[in-house]
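Page header: ASSEMBLY MODEL / two components / 410 residues total.
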Amino acid sequence: MSVSVSVPTILRPVTKGEKTVSADGATLAELIADLDSRYSGLGDRLIKNGALHRFINIYVNDEDVRFTGGLDTTVADGDQLTILPAVAGGSGA
Amino acid sequence: MSRYPSLIEAVGGTPLVGLPRLSPSGKVRVWAKLEDRNPTGSIKDRPALAMVAAAEADGRLRPGCTVIEPTSGNTGISLAMVCRVKGYRLICVMPENTSEERRLLLRAYGAQIISSPAAGGSNAAVAAAKVLAADHPDWVMLYQYGNHDNAKAHYDSTGPELLADLPTITHFVAGLGTTGTLMGVGRYLREKVPDISIVAAEPRYGELVYGLRNLDEGFVPELYDETVLSSRFSVGPEDAVRRTRELLEVEGIFAGISTGAVLHAALGLAAKAEKDGRSADIAFIVADAGWKYLSTGVYGATDDQAAASGLDGQLWA
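Prediction written out in full:
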């Protein structure tokens, strides 16, 4: 199985410039471990003290994983994973 | 009541309208709260007025004061109106990649604008405003991202209005920026409505906006408390634009583009409730109307793809 992972510019030095990479795993934690095995250091950028980095947001099919089980969030073949740094964004609401 | 002593008393009390054609069925209904009906045309009139009133009450704001605020638009426009009425000078620090209409409106209300770089989006505006405020101790920064009177405005007004108009509410959906709307309305509804879902729709911009130099420059508004939310969705410009156009075509509501992102999340929840055979009353926020975004070409474009291309590099929410 394979999940497509969108990588933000700030992490592309770790993914050798790749904007989209694929990864395997049944949970987000497994998926990040798989990525880290090929892109050394990526895990440390995403996870601090066993939890997602405060300024990193990860979405599976556009839903924030902090509300779906965090690192235990299950992922399935064909899912889209998006990694983004937390920023102020627009004025929103 | 439709008579008020002055414009600022006319903030709030906005209509909640049903979307009979976009709702999946009579059992799963979607409702739009039209915040563009506020005096300057956006939901931000509520927090702007509340933050100024609180600062006056505790003595931070005195006659003749200068107010400075980082804003990508609507809060600045609301503050500009309130400052005009109350006689304060306003300086807005805003990213240069915000729409021209917002700048023209701010100037019309008499505000000064200091531009921050497009790269970094509102992050850069927040950082620049903090530096300017530190350099000018006599200026008052209300700081919408960390000002509890921002969320309190929604706890005190937007939330109670929603519950009064829709006692059967099951879901509340709004955009996530300062997080003030979701925190304030969310806390109020959680106290009153067991099992309510509070759902955030977060605009996903182009890469430029996420262009931090390092991760420690990241930003989470001080107001944000994730325990208030049930779920949070990231909505890209294509979906936001498609829904903005659909809302206009199908229901006749001319909303700003951030509303399209919020509607996308709301219709996702509606489809799920319908599929699960549950009844639902889903209320979402129309934060502003489309006027300020006409120059993006989103409304007149021949198709959704062409419409989305008009947003490249823009802070559209």
